[in-house]
Amino acid sequence: MRLAPRLPGGPPVAGDRVRIDDKGTQGTIREILPRRTVLERIGSGGRVRTVVANADLLVVVAAVAEPALHPRLIDSYAVAAVAGGLDFAVVLTKLDLPHDTVLADEVVGRQRAAGHPVLMGSARDTALVEQVRQLIDGRLAAFAGLSGVGKSTLTSALTGVARATGEVSDRLRSGRHTTTDPRLIPLPGGGAVIDTAGVRAFWLPPMEYGDIAAGFPDIVDSASRCRFRSCRHMGDAGCAAEAEIDPVRLASYRALVEAAESAEKFARGGAS
How many structural domains does the chain have? Predict the structure, then answer.
């Protein structure tokens, strides 16, 4: 399959629907059809990159150990999911390894309080695999997260299609990149998964304050009890979130808002 020169909106990504010209010996992708949902991030050179298109659900797979659990990364993905029109869920893996149970319980509590489904277990356990299958429920789900957390292991177990899996670096205790080609793989019985490449960081694309807030539904709910309707929950007087929201989660929200504001100021300075 070839791409038409200067393909509008190209190149296509996993999940894209395209128009193909099948004349000749090799088909040519002529058009990328409008995307219903997107997962976007900042790529190399500071450009916004679409990672997945038309998925219904973003499942962040996070290990409780090897590599270490990063709650703020999960929050970043939640914001990206809501901004892109996807449902959001979390799967915690490697519960069979020694880990910080207090931190894991806190992450589970915060995400469930925000209304996000959370599943837990080992990526190799049949029970967890079946729970994930029920979570997907015939939809198109994208798996995302750090390298080495078990995304490809889950994908292989769900689909029966072998995906490369890697060990965790002894020196850094972080995952090695094994999936470099995100693929849409159908599930037996309906639905499909996209196993995205592992990351070490996930940088949100430029977005408005309201888009970030929408990724924290528990904080949005508290807004109705703030003293001022314009409260941004950034230390404003009479902010209900100060008393109602877990301090660590509130700090995560504020860090994302501050990062977005810094990126906006940088963009304005670069354009002047």
Answer: 3
- The boundaries of the domain holding residue 106 are 38-195
Say if residue 120 is in the same domain as residue 218.
no
Provide the residue-wise pLDDT of the chain in tens; the chain has 272 residues.
Answer: 677 777 777 789 999 999 888 776 677 888 889 999 999 998 777 788 999 999 999 999 999 999 999 999 999 999 999 999 999 999 999 999 999 999 999 999 999 999 999 999 999 999 999 999 999 999 999 999 999 999 999 999 999 998 655 444 444 344 444 445 688 999 999 999 999 988 878 888 888 888 999 999 999 999 999 999 999 999 999 999 999 999 999 999 999 998 887 766 544 554 33
Tell me: cis bond preceding 247? Omega within 30 of 0 counts.
Answer: no
Both tokens assigned to 67: 């590599």
Do residue 180 and residue 63 come from a single domain?
Answer: yes
SS3 249: helix
Long-range contacts of 259-267 (CB under 8 A, 24+ apart): 259/204, 260/204, 260/206, 260/207, 260/209, 260/212, 263/206, 264/206, 267/206
67: preceding bond cis by omega (within 30 degrees): yes
Tokens of 134: 């029920």
Token pair in block for residue 98: 């020694």
Task: Establish if 59 belongs to a structural domain.
Answer: yes
In terms of Cβ atoms closer than 10 Å to its own Cβ (0-12, 13-18, 19+), residue 241 is buried
Q: Is residue 77 one of the residues assigned to a domain?
A: yes
Give DSSP secondary structure letters for 253-271: HHHHHHHHHHHHHHHHHHH
Looking at the domain assignment, is residue 246 inside a domain?
A: yes
Same domain, 86 and 111: yes
